[in-house]
């Protein structure tokens, strides 16, 4: 394995990205303005916040390292909840992020009040409160300390960033160090976090399925997202799938806001009517007494994509894409609060995205040597069922601040998911043997609970998780003669066949977490999770060879541990050392669809992936500057089930991944801010049955990436530009090309964004690829389809303008 010190020395310049400030909420809730009497004596800030919470009824979520060692002055008098909290925070360089009228998250702030001002006047003069909703995720219940490195993106930032990105996956990849660069397709395949999988949750509901189809980030319209919280590093907080990190997406909260949204976008490298797209959205809400209800409806039409030379982009023939598509997303929430301690919330998301294009990818370029020709779009496709994704989820949550002395967070959820891919010519591969279009049909039911108890400097978190999943993956088989005679344009269905049989995957887990906060800056986190999984499937016949495979069942379990030590020095410096074990269920479907007649699930390689993650971090939070550096190592005795070149080879390789990430930002003035982000990751694997280590491929280990962001924030408008860079990398073994193993080229792009915020709404505009750079994204250079049909250029210059009006 490469020496880690050499990696650190070779990566001497690191850049970080930090969220820009957003405007304060213009619609105060009742809890914010109700005046109560406070009689708080001088104490530590942690103790003062606990007393404040009892008086105000507001639940406080705060990382202990942020308040450790800070003193709070007495607070006496009649104040609203907001006024009292701002007075307590005073000059502590912290800001209050209001989740809703009942909960607030305390975060670090880049600006600090002048010490010459009194606290009373400072509270009334300084408007730095960000109003976003975090929705009480587990990472906000104190468990974020398991990873430490966290990025939060709010709704305003999303609206701004959508102007310079093709989709949500692209936005996240530009913000978060350690995440692989994104392509411009309908997939997060290859979008790894620290070389491993990222678990995506929407309001606590997992978007992953056991048969990983890599569309987790395409299940809701971005306009309906309130916040995105990305916690980097493997952990088992939410169970299976978070070996690389967790992305917690919170949908818009139930308020009485009535908002109309409109936007349009167009290619500027080739201005054509079919390259034009638009977005329409409407939000309505009602708040009365203890009840609140809201409904969000967003419809979007996406036009064709054009490269920097003005040529239309070909469809991505492996994972699918988003151009010439339509989206309809409906999100509803109802909240009932019978008392100060209890909240019940019912949420629903219905999302559908479907493609309707006249273009196909010309299969003739597949016969040419790789990189000799880019993928070509040809008109005249005859395919009834094109790329599509449908996601329906219902979520019932219950929050109670006093259940036998505990704070309770519980939810029950149900999800139905269906998605279609582009047909694949699998005739050369034994596991396929047909021209076939795969699709996934999944039903999921789950329950999550979390109980929290605080006693003095001690905090206890524990609960149970249950997830029941039923997944099948059939295929539509198409006539070979019709396909060949039409040069890959005409798809005549011959009916459905089984690719992966219906499989039940049921998991049950118990977890417990303990946190101790000393009075001298040391914080200890320690936890355990016990996971048990049962898998079963019925008899089936394989697609490729027509083997008869007997059904079976399998049970396995694992115990996962975590331990973190964090220490705050004086003057804003701090450090931590963390050990976390990540857990991931094996992709059962991938092995089943390549099974032979002798297959026996009990003797298969279907064992879970357990990763051991060690991380060392250092930080500095000054008045106007922030620096976060982390180095990590992640090892696993068995990686995920791997199939290369769509054939029969299935392996479980030993893996070792190391990396370094850095984020830094500096506020030169209250208006002008510089942010930097960068990460470098290396990874090696020891193929099953060998003793020789080799570099991992580019779909797992991204090259060095960096971004520089300059932003100027005035009273009601802001201007931002970002330079994005992805370095070159040679993933070949002994100079030979293979799946995800090619020599890639570097590319640098520039995005420009502007936003105007008014009490009545906002106007945003963005230009992606400002200089009209002609390049191929990393995903395209790695040739997902193993030939030139996946060698698709990036979009040229693209303009997006959006407008929202609050009635």
From TrEMBL:
CDD domains named in the record: ligand_gated_channel
Domain Secretin/TonB short N-terminal: residue ranges: 58-109
Membrane topology: Multi-pass membrane protein
Molecular function (Gene Ontology), one example: siderophore uptake transmembrane transporter activity
Biological processes per GO annotation: siderophore transmembrane transport
Residues spanning the signal sequence: 1-24
Name of the protein: Siderophore receptor
PROSITE patterns xref list: TONB_DEPENDENT_REC_3 (PS52016)
Keywords on record: Cell outer membrane, Ion transport, Iron, Iron transport, Membrane, Receptor, Signal, TonB box, Transmembrane, Transmembrane beta strand, Transport
Cellular component, GO, one term: cell outer membrane
Location within or outside the cell: Cell outer membrane
UniProt family annotation: Belongs to the TonB-dependent receptor family.
């Amino acid at each position: 394995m490469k020496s880690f010190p050499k990696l650190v020395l070779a990566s001497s310049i690191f850049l970080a990205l930090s969220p820009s400030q957003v405007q304060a909420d213009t619609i105060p809730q009742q809890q914010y303005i109700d005046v109560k009497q406070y009689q708080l004596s001088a104490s530590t800030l942690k103790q003062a916040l606990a007393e404040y919470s009892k008086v105000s009824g507001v639940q406080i979520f705060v990382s202990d390292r942020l308040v450790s060692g800070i003193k709070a002055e007495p607070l006496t008098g009649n104040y609203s909840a907001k006024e009292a909290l701002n007075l307590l925070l005073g000059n502590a360089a912290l800001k209050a992020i209001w989740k809703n009228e009942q909960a607030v998250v305390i975060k670090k702030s880049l600006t600090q009040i002048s010490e010459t001002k009194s606290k009373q006047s400072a509270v009334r003069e300084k408007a730095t409160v960000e109003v976003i909703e975090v929705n009480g995720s587990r990472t906000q219940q104190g468990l974020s300390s398991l990873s430490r490195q966290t990025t939060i993106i709010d709704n305003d930032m999303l609206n701004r960033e959508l102007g310079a990105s093709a989709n949500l996956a692209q936005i996240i990849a530009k913000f978060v160090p350690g995440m692989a660069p994104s392509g411009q397709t309908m997939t997060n395949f290859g979008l790894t976090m620290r070389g491993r999988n990222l678990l995506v949750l929407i309001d606590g509901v997992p978007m992953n399925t056991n048969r990983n189809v890599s569309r987790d980030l395409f299940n809701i319209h971005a306009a309906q997202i309130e916040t995105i919280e990305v916690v980097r590093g493997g952990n088992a907080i939410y169970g299976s799938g978070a070996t690389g990190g967790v992305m917690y997406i919170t949908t818009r909260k139930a308020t009485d806001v009535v908002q109309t949204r409109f936007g349009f976008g167009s290619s500027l490298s080739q201005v054509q009517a079919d390259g034009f797209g638009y977005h329409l959205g409407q939000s309505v809400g009602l708040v009365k007494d203890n009840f609140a209800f809201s409904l969000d409806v967003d419809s979007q039409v996406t036009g064709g994509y054009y490269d920097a030379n003005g040529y239309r982009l070909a469809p991505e023939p492996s994972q699918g894409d988003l151009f010439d598509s339509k989206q309809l997303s409906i999100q509803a929430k109802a909240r009932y609060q019978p008392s100060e301690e209890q909240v019940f919330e019912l949420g629903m998301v219905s999302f559908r995205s479907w493609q309707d294009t006249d273009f196909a990818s010309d299969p003739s370029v597949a016969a040419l040597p790789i990189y000799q020709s880019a993928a070509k779009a040809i008109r005249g496709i005859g395919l009834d069922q094109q790329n599509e994704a449908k996601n329906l989820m219902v979520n019932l949550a219950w929050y109670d601040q006093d259940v036998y002395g505990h704070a309770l967070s519980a939810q029950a959820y149900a999800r139905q998911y269906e998605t279609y891919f582009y047909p694949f010519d699998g005739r050369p591969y034994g596991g396929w043997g047909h021209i076939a279009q795969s699709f996934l049909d999944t039903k999921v039911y789950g329950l999550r609970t979390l109980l929290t108890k605080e006693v003095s400097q001690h905090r206890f978190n524990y609960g149970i998780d249950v997830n029941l999943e039923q997944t099948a993956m059939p295929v539509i088989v198409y006539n070979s003669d019709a396909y060949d005679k039409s040069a890959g344009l005409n798809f005549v269905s011959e009916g459905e066949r089984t690719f992966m049989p219906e499989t039940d995957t049921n998991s049950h887990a118990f977890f417990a977490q303990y946190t101790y906060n000393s009075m001298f800056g040391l914080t200890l986190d320690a936890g355990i999770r016990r996971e048990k999984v049962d898998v079963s499937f019925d008899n089936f016949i394989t697609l490729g060879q027509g083997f008869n495979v007997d059904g079976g069942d399998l049970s396995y379990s694992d115990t996962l541990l975590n331990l973190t030590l964090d220490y705050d020095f004086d003057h804003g410096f701090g450090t931590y050392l963390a050990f976390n074990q990540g857990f991931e269920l094996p992709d059962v479907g991938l092995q089943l669809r390549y099974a032979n007649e002798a297959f026996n699930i009990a003797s298969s390689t279907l064992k879970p992936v357990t990763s051991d993650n060690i991380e060392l971090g250092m930080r500095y939070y000054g008045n106007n500057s922030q620096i976060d550096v982390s180095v990590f190592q992640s090892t696993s005795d068995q990686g995920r089930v791997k199939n290369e070149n769509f054939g029969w080879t299935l392996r479980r390789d030993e893996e070792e991944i190391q990396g370094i990430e850095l984020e830094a930002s500096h506020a030169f003035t209250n208006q002008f801010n510089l942010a930097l982000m960068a990460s470098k990751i290396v990874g090696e694997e020891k193929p099953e049955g060998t003793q020789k280590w080799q570099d991992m491929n580019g779909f797992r280990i991204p090259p060095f990436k960096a971004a520089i962001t300059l932003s100027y924030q005035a009273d009601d408008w802001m201007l931002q530009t970002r330079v994005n860079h992805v370095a070159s990398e040679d993933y070949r073994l002994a100079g030979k090309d293979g799946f995800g193993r090619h020599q890639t080229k570097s590319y640098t792009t520039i995005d420009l964004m502007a936003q105007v915020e008014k009490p009545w709404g906002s106007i945003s505009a963005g230009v992606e690829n400002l200089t009209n750079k002609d390049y191929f994204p990393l995903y395209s250079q790695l040739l997902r389809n193993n030939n030139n049909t996946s060698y698709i250029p990036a979009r040229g210059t693209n303009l997006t303008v959006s407008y929202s009006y609050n009635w």
